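ligand=CO-5-methoxybenzimidazolylcobamide
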Amino acid sequence: MSEEEDLDLRELPDDELVEQMHDDLYDGLKDEVEEGTQILLERGWTPYKVLTEALVEGMRIVGVDFRDGILFVPEVLMSANAMKAGMTILRPLLAETGAQKVGTMVIGTVKGDIHDIGKNLVSMMMEGAGFDVIDIGINNPVENYLEALEEHKPDLLGMSALLTTTMPYMKVVIDALKENGIRDDYAVLVGGAPLNEEFSEAIGADAYCRDAAVAVETAKEFMARKHNKAGAAG
Ligand code: B1M
């Protein structure tokens, strides 16, 4: 038996367990990442702390080696699957806040882009904060956004892009909203690793969200503003 197989995750103190989870995520070991997630929860870690310190940080490390050509697509896919397995455990816990429904958001990754971990994380955190989230998935052409907006009449539209080649597509969607005369019906929030404030402003979005926590805060601010406006008008 190898040393890896001998390792009992339950025997590790928190800091070593988290480090081991980063390694397991790196190696795409889904079962181990699931087990580590469970153990940290049993030890009283909040779902948010497990998410950020064990999973998101692990994926950050994967990203660095992917960029540097040490890891390749098939390996990173395994890491992504392991990360998603951990997120599946955390999702219902993050949504269990009992918060009142505060608004609705349609969210999707733009056309040409299949990255969905960040978007899923934003969805989870938004649900946890009391938003109804309609997730239209990945690789969305403008028609999908328009259909979802028409069908669900949300307060907010969220778009995610992880590639410098796909982020300009967000402007295509915003321009389509303008052409259809519905731009002002929604607050458009954008996010994804290659974006920044400047880009968000340049394409006419309402806000750039650096991470999922910022997305939640920004969404809440927009809802408060919307209610104040409605109050003032009525
Ligand atoms: Co991709 N990939 N990838 N990849 N991948 C990146 C993005 C890259 C930066 C890696 C690198 O080189 N360092 C690079 C992009 C370079 C660039 O454009 N400048 C890259 C590349 C090149 C590619 C391919 C082209 C590789 C290839 O085929 N040669 C290919 C493209 C496929 C395509 O989309 N057409 C590709 C494929 C893949 C996998 C399929 C293997 C896998 C995706 C699996 C999946 O998502 N199901 C993958 C992964 C996992 C990554 C990295 C390693 C990790 C992304 C991630 O999940 N991060 C990534 C490296 C990196 O980002 N540093 C990389 C964790 C996640 C929690 O963070 O997504 O940033 P993030 O989301 C954050 C915030 O950005 C924000 O909140 C989130 C939570 O805090 N946010 C939002 C995101 N969306 C939001 C929406 C909002 C608000 C906030 O709306 C309101």
